[in-house]
Amino acid sequence: MIEFEPPLRLHLDGDALVANWRFLQRQGKAACGAAVKADGYGLGAREVVTRLRDAGCRDFFVAHWGEASAIADLVPPEWISVLNGIQPADIPLIQQLGAIPVLNTPNQITMWKASGGGKCHVMIDTGINRLGIGPEQISSDLFDGLELDILLSHLASADEDNEQNAAQLVVFADIGQDIICMRRSLSNSAGIMLGANYHFDLTRPGLSLYGGIARLEMAGSIQPVVRLFARILQVRQLEAGDRVGYNGRFSCPTQMPIGTVSTGYADGYLRAFAANGSASDQGQELPVIGRVSMDLVTIDISMAPSLKEGDWVEMNYDLAQASSSTGLSQYELLTNLGTRFNRRWT
Amino acid sequence: MIEFEPPLRLHLDGDALVANWRFLQRQGKAACGAAVKADGYGLGAREVVTRLRDAGCRDFFVAHWGEASAIADLVPPEWISVLNGIQPADIPLIQQLGAIPVLNTPNQITMWKASGGGKCHVMIDTGINRLGIGPEQISSDLFDGLELDILLSHLASADEDNEQNAAQLVVFADIGQDIICMRRSLSNSAGIMLGANYHFDLTRPGLSLYGGIARLEMAGSIQPVVRLFARILQVRQLEAGDRVGYNGRFSCPTQMPIGTVSTGYADGYLRAFAANGSASDQGQELPVIGRVSMDLVTIDISMAPSLKEGDWVEMNYDLAQASSSTGLSQYELLTNLGTRFNRRWT
């Protein structure tokens, strides 16, 4: 197949990724793992795992078994934990792969024991009511004979100052006293900032590794990892009154030069950016005008009149700011980045 | 690499795809092409091209050269048109590939002529002001020596009853009289429904091939192509007052069974579905409750109490209805469908 250079790029900063992991690790004495599910939050799990492994990370969390399989040549498979549990048909392949299941229900514990078992993790639901064994489902013999490494739970509201955090902490600490395990783990990125008593033995940040600001306290410390660049495909001078894009939503107030840029909602740059999105060129902000198309965005280049066909511009993608202006979460802004980008790691 | 069966599937109906193409073709005497950019609007360009080729489609439109390269073994390359123009560095590879460029600027026409040329298409901008040569940029000798197959333009407001449609039609018809070309093409899915005078020689629908309702007139004729299915990973009985999901946004009004389903916003099932999304099981509608997570959605299964861990449910994904309830366009609902789905064509 003939390979063309894609006209849109993600610049991915491996040093920032590692610095973010180290910052999160420094918040306490617990070991710091990494959530690399959803292909490393859209950035590329293999590149993320390689860099964090080299920095000293030893615990990687994915959602699906296919995601574990896709990184299992990069680290010892027992460093990989699969959050979304097990299905009977998968068990022989799981044992062949050697990654560690997070068992989420009494039924999964029974299946795992019946299959011959081996090392496993268990998720306890302490109040998010999503995945995990509820306190009411724990019986005295449920964990007997289980080779239990990590006892996990997950915080529902760690990004807020919310009494639910302390309530979940109490439940988890109480339950953990009665269950024999090697390690305990509760906190995601935001949870790490709630204090060392939320850390237990192992934390497992995701969002903030990738530059997301999970809580405001980290805004000065977490570095951006992702930048978007795309080529200008066309520059044209429009007249006052000319309308731009689908349904003519933008009308030129005056004569102005516009640039048509090679990215769009099929790349994850959703239509929600039409109102507040912008590009940058040499410090000048170039507002998105008109609707975002599937493969194209139009920008006002009045402030950068030397831009021409073939030039690259940066699409501004500060996660916290873009989240606030589009109503999309920082998580969605990362995980929806599409496959057409040339992902370039430095 | 060990292959696991993904816990989430797209059921893709090849017969519906072909029936939609035939319906669009029947609206007039023009040939009917197919927009297969953005990986066939997220469904899989290779599968789409194969089926439409076998049904008789001879013109396939992509945005990027990499997208042309990815399907060039399936059809004669000259059946593939690349909408987003040319860059100087790509020209040797373009000539090697043999797909046909859509030239969008006077500069691209000059470059193409200088490179030795060959068959090409030209996009005229008749009012969307996004890509294409503006009427004011056309000089008497611009097209001299060009082996021009299709003269294209693109409608901005074909999904509305808007005077812009007739205005664009008049401009395109006028310009087309002065330019020597083999074929002329103006209409996307919605444009086809504006009447045969919008069709010229070739139409190039996208959205409605894939089940999208580009205009209400087609609602009874266009068939859905995509259905989403995902496994239930866990079933649990909750008590009145229990809160579900991130930030505890949903509070159980009474005792109720919930199911946790294996899809989330990383798969394109965005958080906008939290308020109005639902699953289906045997005709029962099972509302999404709480926030959509990255890999998980929680649903109220009170109406389907026999559902259990490991069962599959359908996530309701009627494009027009989901667009109306989420504020996302039908296009975004298709193109954001993620890579973790097992895409199963029938």
Structural description of this entry:
The structure is a homodimer of 346-residue chains. Chain A is α/β, with parallel strands linked by helices and 346 residues long. Chain A is 24% helix and 23% strand. Chain A is built from 10 helices and 19 strands. Chain A has helices at residues 14-25, 37-41, 45-55, 65-69, 91-97, 106-114, 163-178, 189-192, 319-326, 330-335, and strands at 8-12, 31-32, 34-35, 60-62, 80-82, 100-103, 119-123, 147-152, 183-185, 202-203, 226-238, 243-244, 250-251, 256-261, 278-281, 284-287, 297-300, 312-315, 342-345. In chain A, the strands form 4 sheets. In chain A, strands 1, 11, 14, 15, 16, 17, 18 and 19 form an 8-stranded mixed beta sheet that branches. A 7-stranded parallel beta sheet of chain A has the order 3-4-5-6-7-8-9. In chain A, helix 7 links the parallel strand 8 and strand 9 (183-185). Chain A is elongated. The two termini of chain A are 26 Å apart. The mean pLDDT of chain A is 97. At the A-B interface, helix 2, helix 4, helix 5, strand 11 and strand 12 of A face helix 2, helix 4, helix 5, strand 11 and strand 12 of B.
What count of helical segments of chain A does DSSP give? Answer: 10
Largest sheet of chain A: 8 strands, mixed
- Helix content percent band of chain A: 10-25%
What is the terminal separation of chain A in angstroms?
Answer: 26 Å
Shape of chain A: elongated
Order of helices and strands of chain A: EHEEHHEHEHEHEEHEHEEEEEEEEEHHE
Summing up helix and strand content along with how strands pair, one would put the structural category of chain A as alpha/beta
Oligomer: homodimer
Q: Uncertain segments of chain A of ≥5 residues (pLDDT<50)?
A: none
Strand elements of chain A, count? 19
Mean pLDDT of chain A, to the nearest integer, reads: 97
Whole-number radius of gyration of chain A?
23 Å
Strand content of chain A: 15-25%
